[in-house]
Fold these 2 entries.
Entry 1:
Amino acid sequence: MPLLIPMLKQSLLEQWLEPDSFPASTAESGQRFASAVASWFSLGMAGPFPCSTALARQGQLGTAAAAALAAGAPPSAGSQLSMAVSSYYSGQLFGAGTAGFPAASGAVAPLMGAVFSDLTANAEQRAERIATACQLLALSTLVVFPPPLPSFPVF
């Protein structure tokens, strides 16, 4: 199944940005973010192969996301969240293929930072912008397979 922005946007809204109760800590907020992203990324494909490690590595993303959310300054939070998602994508397994580091990680950092610095944005706008950034990272992730298979992008 392709990784679609509206699906991640909805998960981010329901699990992270508009839950019934606010997270008690940045650790809980990071885990909520990771739950939404990991569930979405687990639907990703590289060629004919699904991602087999997305849910197993959710905790890694949650810990890194919590550190990013605690950064305080929007540019720093955006940069750290971009690196958290990029590091999470890197090394994921798709059959016998392994995902490399997303090529767009440097370009996505300012996009994520802008989400945190825009104090007038509502939750839906924030969710869509973060979802778009996560998809850009996914689309710029190349999965390398052993020969004779070619490399495939994550979609």
Entry 2:
Amino acid sequence: MRKSDIYEVAIKILGLYLLFTSIDLLSTVFAAFAIMAQVNQNIQVSDDFVQIPFLVLSIVNFGLVVAFALFLTLKTQVIVRFVCSPTDYEETSSLFADRKVIYEIALVLMGLILVVWTLPDFVINLREHVRLVQSDTPTNQQDMNFVITAAVKIALGLIAVIYAKSISVLLLKVSKNGDVV
């Protein structure tokens, strides 16, 4: 494995990590929407405090992080050409595994971390939401958004673990061609 290949793997793993962590930013967007909805329903709550900049900022932040993560993941060759010197394409290093195996390991680890970090809060908030619904108590839109976001995070974590081999093959094809297959 050449040194440039190691850079490629590391950059792609960073992009994947950013994609997984950008889900938290999605919950911020949902929270901003929920606050806007509550303010629109009860004008006295806001005291003339404009919520639109927070909504726009959360959407722009989410969009920029996702765009950067996709750039790191899908256009890794462009970054590697910029970062590596000509000798990095010739200098070889030996690793215990090839790129596909490293991608699989990274996907499994990121998926497991995502599930383990999210599952306890998801269970507690889902239980609380179900309890409120069963007792006919009004529920909070932010709590429901958290439950939905946590469910998406758990689903993506499980998909990363279950389909790590398939995703790593796809990432390998993207790496070789420089474009999405």
